[in-house]
Amino acid sequence: MADRTPFFASLRWKFALVLALFSGLLMLAVVVVLEKNIRQSLIRENIDKGIGIARGVAFNAEDPLLTGDDLYLFSAVKNALRSPGISYAFIVDRQGSVRAAADMAQVGRSYALPAEAQPLREGDGFRVLRTVREGSAVLDLEIPIFSVAEQPVRLGSIHLGLSEQLISADIASMRRRLALLSAVALVAGSVIAYLLASIFVRPVHALVRGVKAIGEGRLEQHIDLKRRDELGTLTTAFNEMAESLRDKEFIKNTFERYVSKPLATEILRQRDSLRLGGEEKEVTILFSDIRRFTSLAEQLPPTQVVAMLNDYFSRMIEVVNTNNGMVDKLMGDSVMALFGAPIPLGDDPLRAVRCGLVMQQAVAAFNLEQQSRDLPPLEMGIGINTGPVVAGNIGSAMRMEYTVIGDNVNVAARLQGIARPGEVLVSEATYQRVRDQVRATPLEPMTLKGKSRPVGVYRIEELTTAGPEA
């Protein structure tokens, strides 16, 4: 008995102590590495969500502010408050008086934030300040409301209060779960470490590698360990945490499904410069449309029409991606593509024109295959225009899509409407940006539907390396 190693001096105790310390440090590393990033990510998500809601309200609040339609303004405020995490909403006129609020007693009062409000974030057309209301931390999001006249005039602003309680609750919940898992791991490890030391080493190393990988941004981690003990619980929690982070990362990676990989890489590289809430920028818009498709579709069975369209769209989308454009939407038998949004690459008009010519060539190759299968050919017209538009997330809090809006989008659509089969028509604005790289035929200026002045139109014949036209 005298030769027996005291329990507190035994390797089993030492290993249990080391394992307990390691488990605690591991969970502390998880908290330190992830808590700050998760908090910042949640704050950014709340701000981006609030910007989308506020811009939607501001976009539709111009006329009610001018005409005094307070009923509509109150309805807009109530709709904004339905979104989780929004504690208050105010519409304020240019004099700083509250025009609409959930609390009728606030109407007519002067809106002002406490003096201790701290600026948190400011961007193109929005400002976020952190303040305290009724004992709770709130992010006050301000979006100005402008008229849409030729010289915009600020009519007022909308203020949304984004509560930090949900963020704090999520962080606290994460801390509790990690603390619980740490306690379980400590107790279980201390009791059975001397029996299962060799078995524990391998999965613990896997967890360490997984935590380091997540800290480096590699969120595809998954540890396949089928155990029913505390270590299995810890591994399951780790996999659930990794899956949750992958879901958040999925929003950013979704762009790769709609744009070419080089453009997607450029978007991710410049993600700090993106303003997904909406911004004005110069974009080149391309519209293409199949001529007489309705009558053609009546001649074929529906399944064959769908198969033909899928084949056609696959080729068109590939051409757009090859030219680093973004397919904004597919509308029936039409394609709308953007060049210069969300990230401008410098030669956006030229890439759009090249894309249009290659699309016509792709249709010609497609028709040869159609002819070999005794199927009718497709004829396509293309219209291209360049100019300032508003680009960003358009929609509602429940569903949004990245797109562009503005008069220049309509011009591109009108040019596509007058293009004959096989033609690529561009506006004067686009032509002036590519005139040194193309051979084009000027057409008679056309008065497009919805335009008061004639628009210069050019039919692109081919790309050329020749110098400027005489």
Automatic annotation (TrEMBL):
Classification via InterPro entries: A/G_cyclase, Adenylyl/Guanylyl_Cyclase_3/4, HAMP_dom, Nucleotide_cyclase, sCache_3
Keywords, ordered alphabetically: Cell membrane, Membrane, Transmembrane, Transmembrane helix
Top-level taxonomic group: Bacteria
Domain HAMP per the UniProt entry, residue ranges: 198-250
Membrane-crossing residue ranges in chain numbering: 15-34, 178-201
Compartments it resides in: Cell membrane
Every Guanylate cyclase domain range: 284-416
UniProt cross-references to PROSITE patterns, sorted A to Z: GUANYLATE_CYCLASE_2 (PS50125), HAMP (PS50885)
Bilayer disposition of the protein: Multi-pass membrane protein
Name of this protein: Adenylate/guanylate cyclase
Source organism of this protein record: Desulfuromonas versatilis
